[in-house]
Amino acid sequence: MASVIRAVGRMGVVPVTGVVLAGLLAACGSGGSAVSTSTSTSVSTPVAASTTTTGPTPYAATVTSAGPIDPSAVPLGDGYVSSSPKVGYVDSCVTTFPPIGGASVVGPWIDTSTKTWDPLTKPAVQGAVSWSEARFSVTVNGAGRTVAGDDLPIGHTTGTFPISPTDPAHAYDQNPNAISAQSVSWSLPSDPVAAAQPGCLGLGPVGILDDGVYLFDALDGEGRDAGAHEVLDSCQEHPQGAGILHHHQVPSCLLSLAPGPSTLVGYAADGYGIYVERSAEGALLTNTDLDACHGRTSAVLWNGKVQDVYHYDATSEYPYTIGCYHGTPISGH
Predict the structure, then answer these.
(1) Which of 3, 302, 292 is closest to 139 using CA atoms?
(2) Looking at the predicted structure, is the pLDDT value of residue 322 above 60?
(3) How many other C-beta atoms can be found within 10 angstroms of the C-beta atom of residue 104?
(4) From residue 285, how far is each of 30, 196, 327 by CA, in Å?
């Protein structure tokens, strides 16, 4: 009999609990460590204070450099598209893009000289549209996991699309598309395995998040950093030409529900989980913590138990969620 391991209703997201893992995965964000059950204490020998002082770790200057991310100067992902897996890149099946298809104006929140962008000053599409018909469920039956829904958001509203000419966002992005319900029915493996070689990401959905909304890769229609260029609503989503609502990253409205060291927030089209993992200080991982597909193996709650499994990770910098497929995606993706 199929068992529903996580179903989300109209009243809001039922988050995968990171609190349950807090005691088990306290060091997960920095690579994870075994959980100690010892209650013994130890006495350390006093050590003379060091007179050496060090300054703060420099912020990452590019999407491929080490260091924490400056929240007001996130490295820009423009140009980081490849035809093979590379850390900090999108391994895209499409490498030639038209000169139109994204925001029409480079907004003032993008600094082209430093190649950074400021999410704190970027505008959002106005509006608060509710979707009472939204549905989303995840069930497991043996070796399979079924993800079903209608691509309408659970637990949050959207902005008003098409973007109104009276909306300040319209000065930068004239998205003319309306949101429409889709038919979502994905049959994924409950325990995916690695492909012989990583796979490139195609156009359209590469995953689906726990708010029931599709996830696209990090590129806009012109092959640029979509998170930086495209003007999205307050939950970082918008529709494309066929009305498919989608995110390009794990949005703030889901990040706020994932304060713990490890939280499952969605599934990629190859069956692997998409997680928010945090350091002891609450910081997200960065690109240099992850492999070329934007993932790693660490202890997370998966299929009802804590285990070391491969998964993708959310970062605040491009490519945000998935850089290439670690496993074999379902047909059409």
Answers:
(1) 3
(2) yes
(3) 13
(4) 8, 26, 21
Peptide bond into 319 cis (omega under 30): yes
Q: Give the separation between CA 236 and CA 220, rounded to whole angstroms.
A: 13
Mean pLDDT of 183-209: 97
Contact predicate 5/140, CB 8 Å: yes
Query: Which pLDDT value is given to residue 188?
Result: 98
Count of all residues that appear for the chain in the document: 333
- pLDDT of residue 262 exceeding 90: yes
Q: In this predicted structure, which of 11-20, 89-98, 193-202, 257-266 has the lowest mean pLDDT? A: 11-20
Element (H, E) at 22: helix 19-22
Q: What is the rounded CA–CA span in Å between residue 121 and residue 100?
A: 24
Nearest residue to 305 (alpha-carbon basis) of 4, 1, 104, 5 = 5
Confidence of residue 331 (pLDDT cuts 50, 70, 90): confident
Give the per-residue pLDDT at 56. Answer: 77
50 vs 253, higher pLDDT: 253
Task: List, in order, residues 6 or more apart from 201 with CB less than 8 Å away.
Answer: 90, 91, 92, 93, 217, 322, 323, 324, 325
CB 252 within 8 A of CB 316: no
Residue 279 to residue 30: CA distance in whole angstroms: 6
> How many CA atoms lie less than 13 Å away from 212 in the CB half-sphere?
31
Segment (H or E) for 255: helix 252-255
Residues near 318 by beta carbon (within 8 Å), at least 6 away in sequence: 63, 74, 75, 76, 77, 80, 88, 90, 218, 225, 227, 228
Residue 196 is encoded by which pair of tokens? Answer: 């012989």
Please say whether the beta carbons of 59 and 72 come within 8 A: no
What token pair was written down for 118? 């400021």
CB 144 within 8 A of CB 231: no
The answer to whether residue 31 scores a pLDDT higher than 70 is no
